[in-house]
Amino acid sequence: MIPNLSPDEESYLKELVGNQTRGIRSLHVTANLLLVFGGLLVAGAALYVAGHMTDTAAYSVGLPNFIGGMISIAGYIFLSRRVTQMKKLTSLLTKLSAR
Question: Cα(34)–Cα(92) distance, rounded to whole angstroms?
């Protein structure tokens, strides 16, 4: 059903799978760093606002840090889904190249 690959196509496919694997690792690390950064941002803002219960502290420190933390966590969710999709694609390409 699938024609055999030429040597050039095979080497290109192996190189592509290798590059995908390195890209997956770096995206996974970046996603985890975003999660840690976002969590620290939200927790730090909560601790600061808890110690300084004023409207000024809530609006000038709490709200911007909370929004930044949520954006970082949303970035983590987006990148982790991307990593999952890339793993599936890499697995598929590896299985197809083994035929």
Answer: 28
The tokens 């299985």 sit on which residue?
Answer: 95
Please list, residue by residue across 59-90, b when 16 or more beta carbons sit within 10 angstroms of its beta carbon and e when fewer do: eebbeebbeebeebbebbeebbeebeebeeeb
pTM value > 0.85:
no
Q: What is the pLDDT of residues 57-84, one digit of tens each?
A: 999 999 999 999 999 999 999 999 999 9
Pairwise CA distance, residues 19 & 26, whole Å: 11
- The secondary structure element, H or E, covering residue 4 is none
Distance, CA of 96 to CA of 99 (rounded, Å): 6
- Inter-residue contact 41 to 69 (CB < 8 Å): yes
- Measured CA to CA in angstroms, residue 23 lies from 7, 15, 87, 92 at distances of 24, 12, 10, 16
